[in-house]
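User: Structure please.
Assistant: Input sequence and predicted structure:
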Amino acid sequence: MVKNRKLLNEELGRKTVDEFKASEKLPIVVVLDNVRSLNNVGSVFRTSDAFLVGKIYLCGITGTPPHPEIHRSALGAEYSVEWEYIEKTINAVHLLKENGYKIISIEQAEKSVFLNDFVPPKDTRFALVFGNEVKGVAQDVVDFSDECIEIPQLGTKHSFNISVSAGIVLWDFFCKLNR
């Protein structure tokens, strides 16, 4: 039996907040469309930190830092990952499109592409939109999106938790962008 000693946090070689802010990011921003759970918001911050996401846009009823519930799941990632609040999600995606981002809603839609089949075009910046826990991404945002990506599911449930969806999609993009 191979014995493996767990590494201590100080042995992991993680960036400081200042090093994170100065580092090159993935060409990805995350847009949270009316995410109601502060724990989900915090989890998305933590996952975004892990995969060097450029920025998070918090829209509608989505909670914003500082907040103890966000901090509880973000574990400080709300200090490293840049974020901005924009009241209307549609305004956020319009702004991002004007700035050269490809808008991709993570949603089950008529012409969605399965995540495993999606090949991110090179030299492209992506705005990944994740929706409300019950209603998903708003229809006006889906209509404005360049594409919809769907995570394949084989069980009885209709969707993943938004923080799980963000983890799956960001990991997939991280791998496909060869970082």
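The chain has one domain: 24-176.
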